[in-house]
Amino acid sequence: MKKLIIPILLLFGSTLSSIAQCNDYYQIENGSEWEMETYNAKGKLSAKNHQKVSSYDKTASGFKAIIHSTMYNDKGKEMSAGDLEMSCQQGTILIDMRNFINQDQMKAFGNAEMKIEGDALEVPSKLSAGQALKDGTLILTAVGTPIPMTMTINITNRKVVSKESITTPAGTFDCYKITSTMNMQNKMGVTMNFTFSATDWIAPKVGMVKTESYDKNGKLNGYTILTKRK
Fold first, then answer.
1. I want to staple 10 with a disulfide (CB 3.0 to 4.6 A). Which of 93, 166, 172, 211 is the partner?
2. Domain ranges of the chain
3. What whole-number distance in Å separates Cα of residue 207 and Cα of residue 15?
């Protein structure tokens, strides 16, 4: 498993849209695109991620969108690509927890049929310091495999702690700072548990600006920043 776990919120940067929006923080439209860069704890570039909204459909309560994501290594070579799902209902952004799964981890399941259970990760339209946010859960179970295989991801202790100004190559933004804890449990013959914590900075009309991840002892694993947006 990769040492740096990138929180799912960071996968969705965004851009100011001229159309009516469902959520104050994640304002997107078809064709919106942005780029983010990931660095290790020593500040060395480890990956770049380019994302573009390939499908955007308005609904009675908000929208549904498909975001095409392409990941590159530090040399600019494409490592992976795929589509991510995002929706908004009555002002609340709903992020599919399946987007937390590292592609290297999914290889362990091979071509097995997957049973998927859990709750989406929510981002409300209004944030304030001291606000507690809902937890997110995902349970993946392989069906019909010789060895039982289950992956469980829990994101807990989500809390808005303060407002801060953050500067990245994309600009300077007034952000809300959100902390959380993520636990991953893999059962594939043996049980393995991994615990991380994260701090995210999210700005109105922009989305995720920066995120940092830490190991169970509070040591920085790495960070990701917004570098471009269109």
1. 211
2. 8-229
3. 8
Q: Does residue 109 sit in helix, strand or coil? A: helix
As a whole number of angstroms, the longest Cα–Cα distance in the chain is: 52
Three-state SS at 74: coil
Quickly count helices (H) and strands (E) in the chain: 1, 13
Q: What is the pLDDT of residues 98-153, one digit of tens each?
A: 666 655 555 566 667 778 787 888 999 999 999 999 998 888 888 877 778 888 88
Q: Which H or E run contains 103?
A: helix 103-106
**Token pair of 16 as six digits:** 């100011």
**What's the topology of domain 8-229?**
YmcC-like fold (2.40.360)
Q: For 196, list phi and psi in degrees, rounded to 5.
A: -135, 160
- Write the DSSP symbol of residue 132: B
> Could you tell me how far CA 181 lies from the centroid of its own chain?
13
